[in-house]
Amino acid sequence: MSNKNSRFPTPSDALWLPYTQMATAPLPLVAVATEGVRIRLADGRDLIDGTSSWWTACHGYNHPHIQQAVKQQLEIMPHVMFGGLIHEPARQLASRLAALLPGDLNHVFFTDSGSVAVEVALKMARQYWMNQGQKNRSRIIYFRHGYHGDTFATMAICDPDEGMHAQFAGAMPKEIMAELPVDEKSQAAFEACLAQHAHEVAAVIIEPLVQGAGGMKMHDAATLARVAASCQRHQILLIADEIMTGFGRTGHLFACEEAKITPDIICLSKALTGGTLALAATVAREHIFTAFLSEEPQKALMHGPTFMANPLACAAANASLDLFEQEPRLNQVAALSKQLEQALAPCRWLSSVKDVRIKGAIGAVEMSKPMNLNAVRSQFAALGVWIRPFGQVIYLMPPLVISAQDLTVLTEAVIQVVTALDYAQ
User: β-strands 139-143, 176-178: how paired?
Assistant: First the structure.
């Protein structure tokens, strides 16, 4: 039913925005163009992007190499179904990902969003055991503060207390939440959990090194290595959700590399296409893929998104991988990490700040109390930056190509806003 008194003027009143209470939300800003690390608004302002558009625009916006690749593919073949047909952009991208990923992560299943990539990983893990006659191994172990998506299967493996989906608790399957094994006590508890549930568990899923939407919680490579070793001891599959951390964000091309581990399945999306088109991938090791090979049709992986392996998106992803080869992205991440550490250090001494965390090109300032998020977001926009805090966390995850000068604008805006919050207490 049309509401002529809507807070959103025509034509925006037809929009239903994500993670937004539409009854009380302020008017959204209107973006009209992007360039480099900037978002241009309809009112003429330019905002320096501190979030890479939900962590995707790793090369900044409008990179000419990606633009040219997409334009060329658009003229040749914008889309074709992937059922019974394949095409060179997908074949090339799968081969390149297999070569870049650690170990024998060689078999790439394309989807079109991070949530679906995780859904496919869960289906792969469960059917891996089913195909070997172990149908009881269907549960998933996940970690506190974890976030893996907004679809029903992925909501079931998000932190039920601190996540966004608590109201759906009764409608979701009951999976098993564990604490990250960050020390001897928590490692012993994790081992006990695996020993108790190994007979019914298909896989453990983890966000390597950084738990993103759960609060930018960070753990070290030793913790990740302990998780992998425990899974191996108990013969439980390990799924690495690198949708956020993949493609250089933590300082390695993939976060798993820092711990020198090879998960059984890895999920990729967000920066896969350089932030230009929707694409995701679920990549499995050799033994996972082999378990689906059979004369029995029911042992095949029965999944197939309509826009799976879209040629335009694959062309963009191939062009993005070119840039990781041709331009010094990981060196840029190292420089960003050092600057973030130094620039955000003053926040550590404010009474309103609970913690400051840095990992690669991610900087997080956790406040000790909840914020008025709408007010804080407006303050950042007024300072000429696009920073979107959530929960009690103000974070920076800028494009990897951002200059030191533009990053300084972002960090100074954070310090200014956090200091004002400190005085307001």
Answer: parallel
Per-residue burial over 128-155, b = 16 or more CB atoms within 10 Å of its CB, e = otherwise: bbbbeeeeebbbbbbbbbbbbbbeebbb
What kind of fold does domain 65-326 have according to CATH?
A: Aspartate Aminotransferase; domain 2 (3.40.640)
CATH 3.40.640.10 domain position(s) in the chain: 65-326
Q: CA 415, CA 94: separation in Å to the nearest integer?
A: 42
Task: Point out the residues that are catalytic.
Answer: 19, 147, 241, 270
Treating both helix axes as pointing N-terminal to C-terminal, what angle do 221-233 and 184-197 enclose, rounded to 10 degrees?
30
pLDDT tens, residue by residue, 313-365: 999 999 999 999 999 999 999 999 999 999 999 999 999 999 999 999 999 99
In the chain, ranges of CATH 3.90.1150.10 domains:
12-59+329-424
| Cβ proximity of 377 and 27 under 8 Å | no
Helix (H, G, I), strand (E, B) or coil at 240: strand
3-state secondary structure of 164: coil
pTM recorded for the entire structure: 0.95
Strand partners, 367: 353
Contacts of 53 (CB under 8 A, 6+ apart): 275
| CATH number for domain 12-59+329-424, candidates 1.25.40.10, 3.40.50.10240, 3.40.50.720, 3.90.1150.10 | 3.90.1150.10
Biggest alpha carbon–alpha carbon distance for the chain: 69
